UniProtKB/TrEMBL annotation:
Residue ranges the record marks as coiled coil: none
NCBIfam families reported for this sequence: REP_Tyr_transpos (NF047646)
Protein's organism: Adhaeribacter terreus
Organism superkingdom: Bacteria
Protein's name according to its UniProt entry: Transposase
Domain Transposase IS200-like: 10-148
Pfam families per the UniProt record, alphabetical: Y1_Tnp
Length: 182
């Protein structure tokens, strides 16, 4: 992993993005997005993850996070490991999943090409954390994260997207417990 893709200062906020292997559009079904939501809430409650903003797109996740307890790299490792296993199981067991064989083929192929995996690789290896060391960067990444579903044509307003913290910043309550940035 390159030097620029590490959590250097555990006391700071980071913008983190991570994507599925081959940018496969897995998160087109609420079932799979809900697994990520549940994992974010679990990591907040049990591992000390501080979620300031989040957004789940069709093939990637954006977060603004911090932690004052467990190291962020450990939390991210556990989050990605748990979600990959749980989502792969859900894909395998979902009778409505018409793309099952195609999706699993991609993840199995990636898993065979990576010695760190036994069978499947769901997430790309890196998290690409970006240190948010200024108000300008925080505002820029928060805006980018919340505008992502609008730019993708999923919704017309950020707060209309159910899988984003934009609802919380618009004075509604979203499904992930967050800490509002001021």
């Amino acid at each position: 992993m390159s030097r620029s893709y590490k959590f250097w200062d555990q006391e700071k906020l980071y913008f983190v993005s991570f994507a599925t292997v081959n940018w496969n559009d897995v998160f087109t079904r609420p079932l799979y997005k809900d697994i990520v939501v549940a994992s974010l809430n679990y990591c907040s409650e049990k591992k000390g993850l501080e979620v300031y903003a989040w957004c789940i797109m069709t093939n990637h996740v954006h977060l603004i996070i911090g932690s004052h307890s467990e190291p962020l790299e450990a939390i991210m490792r556990d989050l990605k490991k748990h979600t990959s296993k749980t989502i792969l199981k859900a894909i395998t067991e979902n009778p409505q999943e018409s793309r099952r064989d195609w999706i699993l083929w991609h993840f199995a192929r990636a898993g065979r090409n990576n010695q760190n995996n036994k069978d499947y690789q769901f997430w790309q290896q890196n998290n690409q954390p970006i240190l948010l060391d200024s108000n300008f960067l925080i505002e820029q990444k928060l805006h980018y994260l919340h505008q992502n579903p609008v730019e993708a044509g999923i919704v017309s307003e950020p707060e209309h997207y159910n899988y984003s913290s934009a609802q919380d910043y618009a004075d509604s309550k979203g499904p992930v417990k967050i800490i509002l940035l001021e």
